[in-house]
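Blackboard transcription, Thursday session:
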Amino acid sequence: MTKFYAATAIALCFGSAVAAEGTLNLYVWSDSIAPELIEKFSNEYDVQVNVDGYSSNEDLLTKLQAGSSGYDIASPSQHFLRIMIDAGLLENFGANTLDAYANIQEKYRNQWWDETQEYSIPIAYGSAGFAVNTDEYTGPTDSLKYFFEPEGELAGRIAMLSYPDEVVGAAQLYLGVPFCSEDPAEMKRVLDLLMAQKESVAVYSSDNIEGRMGSGEVAAHFWWDGEVVRAAASGAPVEYAMTKEGLVGWIDSLVIPKGAQNRENAIRFIEFISTPENATIQMNHYAHSSPMNVIEAEKKYTVENAPGLYPTVPVVMSRTCSPKAQDLVTRVWTQLLQ
Amino acid sequence: MSEATAHHTDTPQRRRQINLPYVGLAPAWLLMIFALIIPILIIIAVSFAVRGAYGGFDWGFDLSGYRQILFNEGWTGEMEFTPQYLIIILRTILLATVTTVLCLILAVPVAYWIAGQPGHRKSVLVFLVTLPFWMSMILRVYAWMIILGKDGPLLRFFEFFGAPSGMTLMYNDGATLAAMVYTYIPLMVLPVFASIEKLDGTLIEAAHDLYGNRWTTLRRVILPLTAPGIASGVILVFVPAFGAVLEPTLMGGGKQMMMGSLIQLQFGGGRNWPFGAAIAMILMMFVMLVLIGLALRSARNEGES
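(Written on the board underneath:)
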């Protein structure tokens, strides 16, 4: 009996040691990575890949700050990437020496969130704006005015995200207030605008947006470009607004959290997903634009069938706010929903 | 495994020596210490810590987390009394209280009726009451969104009887309450049922014999005897309802913050962990006050009888 237990224990240790070598734990935006690529990578390198999803940068930051997350790869947006580098939460894996770096489109290299590009390889970029259900609303969509000061068909039938950062950012674009403003008077104007809009807002929620929009429960929803493109591709009557004031931009990058157990596999995966062929598969799945050089002929979403991904108006990247500016954002949000 | 058990039962003296009642409770104590006491101590420590610039915290002593509940820098830059968080706290208390009262009003007749059923049917009914708990809570809330939503059965029903089109049942306090009551009512039915089942029917007969009408019997015989069950039902419903996030956000449209979402905001977007921990402490202290109040009351009642 004892012998049997001992043998099992040894086998278990041995087994888990082997398994640990071939493991990769991803913590990325929910449903962001193409399952096809996960399977391909898993087979090609004989690695057990586990994927967990989050739905806000804050979730990721909080988890990394709490320590020993157990993840090997994460995909923060640019402004959170900056915070994570500054807080020493990420591995310097010499991203600029990888083949993946060579395949990044020129204009997305060495940006302010990772000037030397040692910590991150970008994987997707896009924007946030508002989308309308074309069955419910037929008016113009070329200004944020229709969303922030809704009239007629939109009054009482618009929905906001429940993320203060995105909502406040768009309001700042509309009012011409700079992102991360530290001026209380300017932020009071943002609050006043959102307070006035609240009369017309049916719901503040970041969940189940597709259901709410597709069913016509609301006529307009603050949303992300790729999600709108995906919904439209599946037949929902939705359209992404090109607003002349601009769109709030973001770019997500793959990073390795400090102390990752499977660093080698993480780098292998980053190289794998960044080849032109796989970046194309990834873009076709995620429906957000790729900062990589992709195979143009195999792109599923083009200017013709997915205009939302090819903005004709300025896209302003959200920035890393100082604690003082962030407090003002939180104060606006709390007073809005108090 | 079975060998070891047999060995212990063979030597009762030895078992007495190592004082099994205490050793036997060790797993429960360890669980309490690691899963309850230490986390609470950590939250207390964080609530007095110094906030980090981008979330997180540094060890230190700072009362600003608690001060912020009442006093904040206003839009003009002056420190001033800001009732916004008090409003959120009071609203949460109100929602939890109304939920508890509605659950009680609905649960007592249901429990009474179930208790009066023959044995086999009774167990089936109790099973049915617990059935929703087999499903994830988020699914149950989504089910309510379908029921109350546009093109949902309820709205169709109303429209058939001439309700104006464009009417909506979602995203208001009523929708929040419907989901809250639905979610928590089994927690009220079960303890109330357990205490009603134990009720001695002859006492009710006796009350009627002494010319007590139905109302008097309910008030002076049934309610006092089922008070322990009602009290545990109230606790079981009130405490989780106080921290509810899902129903107000999904059903109520998230237009008014509750304490749960306020805490979430501070640990997330607000990046102010000490403040979040301070609100969590306030929430916990309030719940403890309610529990202590109920415990004292039941102790006094027992003393009287």
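Lecturer's comment: The longest helix of chain B spans residues 84-115.
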